[in-house]
Write a structure and sequence with these properties.
InterPro entries: AAA+_ATPase (IPR003593), ABC_transporter-like_ATP-bd (IPR003439), ABC_transporter-like_CS (IPR017871), ABCG_dom (IPR043926), P-loop_NTPase (IPR027417), Plant_ABCG (IPR052215). One of its GO terms (cellular component) is membrane. Pfam families: ABC2_membrane_7, ABC_tran. By secondary structure, the chain is an alpha/beta fold. It has a six-stranded mixed β-sheet with strand order 8-9-10-5-11-12, sandwiched between helices. A three-stranded antiparallel β-sheet has the order 4-3-6, with helices on both faces. The longest helix has 22 residues. The N terminus is likely disordered. It is 38% helix and 18% strand. The chain is elongated. The structure holds adenosine-5'-triphosphate. Adenosine-5'-triphosphate binds next to α2.
């Protein structure tokens, strides 16, 4: 699991996690989802159930509330319902501040804020076990002095169990590096402030490598393409959500402004505006939803740009609604939210959630995977820290300089002090 600075405090809600995979001996007998949905071009659906043995995540009536600083509260997420299935990629999109990261955090069980509603894993309220899920945060927290290979290999040693040999861990690290297309940069330093290293896109991929070493069934990605140009974004996203990588995995990603090529990689889309659902459903049907409600995407415009422009109320600009004339943004958003709540997409989402939850009977809790023992973790961290410090000359020499200065300052106090009481009193005065 990704490093997390906080843990959930949701004891009063129905929310719970667990790791679960569908028991293999019941796989053949599982009923297909009976919901008629637009088939996804990317998913590997078999009789309505896209992938087997994976993690189905559903959330219903999810609210997240924070204090508004004036003794009251403010809802960041309002009554969200949705699902994510194995072998599929769910993209969470919306204007800045609409609640994308909050939704991801809530689903991943990393939220401190008050939340209510139900989040179920394979139809059950359960806790995701170690190694079942991973969370790639928006910021890359990598040691800049290590090479790509070292960063991934040290992580493999920390995360993978002692029952795996060093060679097996190395192989897993190499395979993951290859999977993310980083084999040519394996010996290049990550680099950072003042030291040139790999590119921003490669850094994002290293961060992802580190998180997927345990082969998590559920992957959360927070803005995996932030700071990348459109070509790099496509390259990164096509690696992450490509057919080989997504197989059996449930991937949920928040994303700001995908190009049309990147957008085409998504199966489902959750479009948020001020914490409310504007649209949830097949990504390729979103255009039709906007057109049907009077906001067609202009020719040659990227659909995702059009969606975001239409529902972004940070900048006052009236929007043309078909023949209905221009409408203020607030009104446009309300029209779309109301239209979604009365659409077939909304009914399909509810039906899918119900169907997924119905299948819970045959889903066993997955055992928590092992990681390196405490002693091994201490040894690996010490070694990694030593490598890091010895390579970071500025940090190393600056510390050495400070220590020498402090020693000198303290030494002068005792220099030529003598051994008698009077000499100590003289120095004291
Ligand atoms: N702990 C908190 N306390 C108060 N407000 C919060 C808290 N967490 C999030 N918010 C607010 O909730 C809203 C949604 O935040 P969030 O980070 O989820 O948005 P986002 O869609 O991910 O934004 P961006 O795309 O810019 O990263 C923002 O207005 C933010 O200020």
């Amino acid at each position: 699991m990704a490093s997390s600075s906080f843990r959930p405090s949701v004891s009063d809600s129905e929310i719970g996690y667990g790791s679960a995979s569908l028991q293999s001996h019941r796989r053949e007998t599982r009923k297909p989802l009976e919901v008629e949905s637009v088939p996804s071009p990317n998913s590997r659906e078999v009789g309505g159930v896209s992938e087997e043995g994976g993690v189905y995540l559903t959330w219903e009536n999810l609210w997240v509330t924070v204090s508004n600083g004036k003794g009251g509260s403010r809802s960041i997420l309002q009554d969200l319902t949705g699902y994510a299935r194995p072998g599929e990629v769910l993209a969470i999109m919306g204007p800045s501040g609409c609640g994308k990261s909050t939704l991801l955090d809530a689903l991943a069980g990393r939220l401190e804020a008050n939340q209510s509603g139900s989040i179920l894993v394979n139809g059950r309220k359960q806790t995701l076990a170690y190694g079942t899920s991973a969370y790639v945060t928006q910021d890359d927290t990598l040691l800049t002095t290590l090479t790509v290979g070292e960063a991934v290999y040290y992580s493999a040693q920390l995360q993978l169990p002692d029952s795996m040999s060093k060679q097996e861990k190395k192989e897993r690290a190499d395979m993951t590096i290859k999977e993310m297309g980083l084999q040519d940069s394996i010996n290049t330093r990550i680099g950072g402030w003042g030291v040139k290293g790999i590119s921003g896109g490669q850094k994002r991929r290293v961060s992802i490598c580190v998180e997927i070493l345990t082969h998590p069934k559920l992957l959360f990605l927070d803005e995996p393409t932030s700071g990348l140009d459109s070509a790099a974004s496509y390259y990164v996203m096509s690696r992450i959500v490509g057919p080989d990588f997504r197989h059996g995995r449930t991937i949920i990603t928040s994303i700001h402004q995908p190009s049309s090529e990147v957008f085409a990689l998504f199966d489902n889309l959750c479009l948020l505006s001020s914490g409310r659902t504007v649209y949830f459903g097949p990504a390729r049907a979103a255009n039709e939803f906007f057109s049907r409600n009077g906001f067609p995407c202009p020719t040659l415009q990227n659909p995702s740009d059009h969606f975001l422009k239409t529902i972004n109320k940070d900048f006052e600009e009236d929007i043309e609604q078909g023949l209905g004339g221009k409408k203020p943004k607030e009104e446009v958003i309300d029209i779309l939210i109301t239209a979604y709540k009365s659409s077939g997409s909304w009914q399909q989402v509810q039906a899918q959630v119900t169907e997924i939850c119905k299948q819970e009977g045959d889903q066993a809790l997955q055992k928590s995977r092992d990681h390196a023992s405490f002693v091994n973790q201490c040894l690996i961290l010490t070694k990694r820290s030593y490598v890091n410090m010895s390579r970071d000359l500025g940090y190393y020499w600056m510390r050495l300089g400070v220590y020498i200065m402090v020693s000198f300052a303290l030494g002068t106090i005792f220099y030529d002090l003598g051994f008698s009481n009077s000499s100590i009193q003289v120095r004291d005065s």
